[in-house]
Design a protein that fits this description.
This protein has about 210 residues and is mainly beta. Helices cover about 10% and strands about 35% of the residues. The strands form 4 sheets. Strands 7-14-8-9-12 form a 5-stranded mixed sheet, with no helix packed on it. A 4-stranded antiparallel sheet has the order 6-13-10-11, with no helix packed on it.
């Protein structure tokens, strides 16, 4: 009797391990000389693991490699030119509500309650907003924030940035280790907040 072979068993999908990115650096100056997957630097002695998001932005040219350096004493990387790091796009971006977010690890968290809007960085970036338990313990990024780096927001009609209720600007340094609270707002039940992204993931919670 002819044996029947189940081809699905022969061609099961191969699950590849996640790619770990590294930065190669000069051990004397701390200057980063190359960034890429670990497989490219197997024979490099002076290298350090790097956050995938930052590594990809360097590879795509969104971060100037010369703006990055390794803190040799602390064994971690820092970004010395904030504007080069966070110029993601120039598109007006509507901040999604928490209940509709397709990601669960925000970088910037906005919360509206009792006519007050609170803005926080998550703890990963030196802010006060705690990340969910599944991300604990959090490996905090050591970043040199430029004190003059502005974060611009527009509070508008729901899904309509042309109807403006209130624009406001804060400094990234205003969110390091503390919250920023905008008080005495008179907003309709439904509204939107827009920004030009400096970070990848923003969320808004309306209580």
């Amino acid at each position: 009797m002819e044996e029947i072979i189940d081809l699905t068993e022969l061609f099961e999908p191969v699950i590849l391990p996640p790619v770990e990115f590294f930065a190669v650096f000069d051990p004397t100056s701390g200057a980063i000389t190359a960034v890429g997957p670990g497989s490219a630097f197997l024979n490099e002695e002076h290298k350090i693991s790097m956050d995938q998001e930052v590594a990809e932005m360097i590879i795509e040219g969104k971060i100037n490699l010369n703006s990055c350096s390794v803190d040799i004493t602390g064994d971690s990387y820092v970004i010395s030119e904030t504007r080069a790091l966070y110029k993601i796009d120039d598109v007006l971006h509507r901040i999604v509500e928490v209940k509709h977010a397709e990601f669960d690890k925000p970088n910037v968290f906005l919360s509206y309650k009792l006519n007050s809007l609170t803005i926080e960085l998550t703890e990963e970036y030196g802010g006060t907003k705690k990340l969910p338990k599944k991300f604990q313990p959090v490996k905090k990024k050591k970043i040199n924030w430029a004190g003059n780096t502005d974060m611009n927001f527009l509070i508008t009609d729901y899904n309509d940035p042309n109807v403006l209720y209130k624009p406001f600007t804060i400094k990234i340094s205003d969110l390091v280790g503390k919250k920023f609270v905008l008080k005495n707002l008179e907003l309709p039940t439904k509204f939107s907040v827009y920004t030009r992204r400096l970070f990848k993931n923003y969320v808004l919670e309306i209580k």
